[in-house]
Specification:
Blueprint: H1 3-24, H2 43-50, H3 56-68, H4 73-98, H5 115-134, H6 139-168, H7 170-178, H8 193-210, H9 214-218
Length: 219
């Protein structure tokens, strides 16, 4: 295997590991009687289980709550949409690479340049809605953690794009001009994509902070 190919694979592996760690951070909180529906089956929950702080029976109970409790249907639907987006984007990427396509620009990749991250972010929004539906007493903690995740995804995506520019040059520059970065909203002129993406994330946090989640609990 050429050295450049090996380095590329290592880089993708490191990016994937960091993405998983960021997503695993999704839950370091306590929502009522649950460790948190966010923590199934993410890293903190796994840590609690392996260290004996959480029993298998508790894991089964929380899993049952997350998958089937009617109170969490809104967040569950959002999370499922994110799973579909992530799966479709990953399948398209793998198929195009199998076909020998260098830069993928069709399908989900014609909506945003990083659709897999968009899928993960959507899943995280759904999980956040589920926890806030149960209890919004830790609102600042939950939203701060979610915002940190977004900043992490932005950093990984920008790092990846530096390499894509090196690999595809003008082709990627033209693609970047046509397709939004991380959210399917075009960045207005005079503002950087990173700043615009962070502003969108902040707006989402404000919506979370103001939304009357008690209405979902009633449903």
């Amino acid at each position: 295997m050429p050295i450049s190919r090996a380095r590329e694979r290592i880089r993708h592996l490191l990016e994937a590991m960091l993405t998983i760690i960021l997503f695993g951070m999704q839950s370091i909180l306590n929502a009522g009687v649950f460790i948190s529906v966010m923590a199934i089956p993410l890293l903190p929950y796994l840590f609690y289980f392996l260290t004996g702080q959480v029993s298998l029976k508790t894991v089964e109970f929380n899993t049952q709550v997350m998958l089937f409790d009617g109170k969490y249907w809104v967040g569950r639907v959002i999370a499922l949409i994110g799973i579909v987006m992530l799966s479709v984007a990953a399948a398209q990427m793998l198929w195009k690479r199998h076909k020998g396509v260098g830069l993928v620009k069709t399908g989900m990749y014609s909506v945003v340049r990083h659709p897999q991250f968009l899928g993960i972010i959507t899943i995280a929004i759904g999980l956040t809605v589920m926890v806030l539906t149960n209890s919004n007493s830790d609102l600042f903690h939950i939203l701060s953690l979610w915002l940190i995740q977004i900043l992490g995804y932005v950093a990984i995506a920008r790092y990846e794009e530096r390499h894509l520019f090196g690999d595809f040059g003008e082709e990627y520059r033209q693609y970047k001009q046509k397709v939004p970065f991380l959210f399917p909203v075009r960045c207005p002129g005079g503002i950087s994509e990173m700043v615009f993406t962070i502003l969108i994330a902040i707006v989402i946090c404000v919506v979370f902070a103001l939304f009357p989640f008690y209405l979902i609990r009633i449903v």
